[in-house]
Amino acid sequence: MHTLKLVQIGNSVGVVLPKEVLARLKLEKGETVFLTDTPYGVALTPYDPGIDEQIELGREFMREYKDTFHTLAK
Question: Bridge-partner residues for 12, per DSSP?
């Protein structure tokens, strides 16, 4: 567990993440993170939560047109 302090950054307020947290998330300075609501509070992740929906839509499209894709692959 890490206790983080809110700090003034220009006209905004931010949180400084410890090196250990950045390493665990495989993040470096300047990269994007996503803050999402969960049943337990909020989660910080380097993965875009919207990508899951896009992947599922792609899978549905591929299932619907599997015969076409099979023919094109020949």
Answer: 9
